[in-house]
Amino acid sequence: DWSPTPTMSRDAWTPALCLGSSRRLLLESEVGRVEFETTRRAARKAAMQALYAIEVGSCSVEEALEHAKEEATWSPIAFSYVRELVTGVADRLGEIDALIVPLLAKGWEWSRSSAVTRSVLRIAVYELYHRPGMPPGATINEAVYMAKTFGQEEEGRFVNGLLANLLPRSPKASWDPADTEPVPEMPEVAPEPAPQ
């Protein structure tokens, strides 16, 4: 069983499957179990958790995905996006890290970045290089949001700066949505509840 905790430190959360914690990583605005996950934000969050568990908890990709699948009731398209992000990053980890490392500040070691920040950046780089229909602005905004939500404020600034430097070098440097295939129907974020 899990319990919602509005503010968790980076060390207080990790998927139970690999590290023994029974807590679920929650957005601060979440209360209780989500009935049906349908957004790319939820998919990115689950993928980030899975990549964190793979790196820190030494989970296999399949173990981490199984845990992510058990954490919520997923629409088929949303969970297929979780799976794509996790397997895409895991399969291209060296390539993705090789795109990030040259953009780090002189003297900064990639291993000094938190596992959360590394997971968030890897997902964003995967989307920039391997998801042609995904708007780069959405990718960067969501990466900054996750870094600030699950890390610290300065991690959001770090992610934003690094991705802003990477974008002009990426296939999406002059991105035009008319030149790409549409992204499958899936909202970026859940709609705001109507006022009572």
Describe what you observe in this structure:
This protein is mainly alpha-helical. It has eight helices and no strands. The protein has helices spanning 16-19, 40-56, 61-71, 76-91, 93-100, 115-130, 136-150, 153-166. The longest helix has 17 residues, at 40-56. The protein is globular, with a radius of gyration of 16 Å.
Number of helices: 8
Instruction: Note poorly predicted spans.
Output: 1-17, 19-34
In N-to-C order, the SSE pattern is HHHHHHHH
Global morphology: globular
Distance between the termini: 32 Å
Radius of gyration: 16 Å
Structural class: mainly alpha
Helix content: 40-55%
* Biggest sheet details: none
Strand content: under 5%
Mean pLDDT: 80
How many beta-strand runs? 0
Keywords, separated by commas or semicolons:
globular; 196 residues; mainly alpha; 0% strand; disordered N terminus
Q: Could you give a short description of this structure?
A:
With 196 residues, the protein is mainly α. It is built from 8 helices and no strands.
SSE map:
Blueprint (H helix, E strand, L loop, with lengths): L15 H4 L20 H17 L4 H11 L4 H16 L1 H8 L14 H16 L5 H15 L2 H14 L30
Helix pairs in contact: 2-3, 2-4, 2-6, 3-4, 4-6, 5-6, 6-7, 6-8, 7-8
